[in-house]
């Protein structure tokens, strides 16, 4: 992938196993973000090949994936409530002719329980900005994952700065990985958790690409 200011990522030769939590290890930045959005079918690579669950074009990949935790794509306005966010997502998912009323406790449970697990669900009338880092990301995952596609891409484990909350987040992703393939990313590896794979990714950082170009120029 290239942008107006030069290479964004690549070339990358990457094979991600099916099922479980798969962690891409690479620096944070536009290259990593673009790579994750490409894997989720939200961006088309400019060259090369990409196959996700048998699909090799962005439209088909899009229908097989969910994407959460990418600020450029799923940023949540801070001054809205949990109820409003769930209501909006349910209306987005519903057929055009269906009337979807404001979310209640049953809607909260149906939307969030599988992602939050034993972790307490956020109050319906709580503002998004008042939630903890962990709850904000779990809610973004729950909103993205309402249709439970085979692939779930979660943008950034480093978004959660507390080690305890990060461990809780990874635990929830591992649980989701029993039924989906989870792809996420972090600068450092993940220790103390039974993730499916940890994959170092080269050529996903602008500084690294610049050095590569110097070596090949």
UniProtKB/TrEMBL annotation:
Superkingdom, natural source: Bacteria
SUPFAM superfamilies (alphabetical): P-loop containing nucleoside triphosphate hydrolases
GO molecular function: ATP binding
Keyword annotations of the record: ATP-binding, Nucleotide-binding
Residues annotated as domain ABC transporter: 11-153
Transmembrane segments: none
Pfam families (alphabetical): ABC_tran (PF00005)
Name assigned to this protein: ATP-binding cassette domain-containing protein
Organism: Mycolicibacterium pallens
